[in-house]
Structure formats: structure tokens, C-alpha cells
Amino acid sequence: MLAMAAPALAQTDVTANIDTNTTWDLAGSPYILQGDIYVTSGSILTIDPGVVVEFDSGAKLKTDAGCSIVADGTVGNRILFTSNSGTPATYDWYGVHIDQSPASSFSYCVFEYAQFNLSISQSDPTVSHCTSRISMYGITCEGASPQIESCDITQNMNGVVIYGPDSAPVVHNCNLYDNPSGNMYVSAYPNPPMVIIDAENNWWGTDVDAEIANSIVIHWMSTYVQVDYDPWLHEVPVEASSWGRVKALFMR
Fold it and tell me: Which residues, at least 6 apart from 25, have a Cβ–Cβ distance to it below 8 Å?
């Protein structure tokens, strides 16, 4: 029914940086990034619900300082960031990266097949009801304190990756499991003051305290950081993603 109701779409090749306020709407979807694309000159890139953004090999979408990406989908019209390959796989594209961004937000988005699905530097956006899957790094925070809530962060090599000392994200009501190198990886907190990462009320794929603790990797030099994961949830709070569910949302 979603496919039948969808309007005819036209591909848009993106080859130039974005230097003025721009909206990517459904009529132009999918948007194909053929190389690195920067949001510059204080601009805001707005991505409408239901839009598909595809990336050629190694490509990335990145904000310059003072610029933003607003990608707010809806329950039935998620925004998809994915590979442009016919046989997609991890590392196909580089990632979405916001840096020193004052107004970025992401909700009801799906990120997949990148090296860094979503990378956040020196910014504090809200990331809600998003899926980050099949990447090397699901969501990365560096000098950043985003609010990450109700997200499905699974099937990545690393789930949420946090680099200090100026990062203090809040991660609540998420699925954080099936990320084999660490559901959460924390590094670069060698000096005081102590930082407590608020990771309460998440589902870690298990109800066993020791197993949850073992899935949180704190680098041996990070003496001044702790991850507060108690209380944790005892069941999945977010419907887990699958390729079939993701594909069905974007049939056209």
C-alpha cells in the first residue's frame, strides 16, 4: 500500500556543495551523492520525510561549522541514508558527519552500510527513533553530548562510540545489542573531572548484569569515566530493524 500511494520520483544527482538553505523533497528523491558534499556558509539542509539519500563509494555528507542538517522523518515516512551500490556492504560510503552544528536533528531516519553511519562532533543534537545498522561505527560522539533516544543501534561492529573528555551523551530507551566489538565503546577520558555517561533504561540484548557490563568497552586509559546503565530495560523498547522492514518503507 505504501508503494501504491507513493508519487513518481525522480533521481537527483548531487555534485556540488550546499551553500544556501536547501530542502531535499520527496519529488527529487533519491538524492545520489557522487562525492563528498559539504553544507557550507551557515546553511541548513532540510531533508523531508520519505526521502532516500544514496552515497557513491567513499562519499560523505558533512556540515561546516555553523551549518546544520535537519532530517526529521515520521513513523510511516522514514528518511534513508544508504549505499548506492547494487550489492551494499559495510564501508560502502563514509558517513553523515555534523560538526559544530547549532540546529541539526535526526528523527525516524535509517543509516546503513557506512563506515561512520552518523558522526557527531562538538554538537548536541537530538537523535530519536532512528536505526543505525550494518556499519563499522553506529553513532559516534566526539566532544559532543547529543540526546539519543528510542533508537535501534544493532548489527554494527561498534554501537555507540564516545570519545572524551568533552562528550556526555544521554542514551535512553534504545536497543543496544548485537554490536560485536562493543555495544558502547568509551575512550579518551584520562584526566579529571569524572564523567558519568547516562545510559540508563536501554535494552542490551540480555537481562544479565555481567553480560551488559562486558558489552560496554572502556579503554584502559579512560580512568575518569563511568557508564551508568542501571536500571536497564528487560525487553525491547523499539521494534528491531530488519532489511525486509527497511526495504518495505522505501519501495517505489
Answer: 48, 51
161 touches 137 (CB < 8 A): yes
| pLDDT confidence bin for 137, thresholds 50/70/90 | very high
Q: Output the pTM of the full model.
A: 0.92
Say if strands 52-55 and 31-33 run parallel, antiparallel, or are unpaired: parallel
pLDDT of residue 10: 83
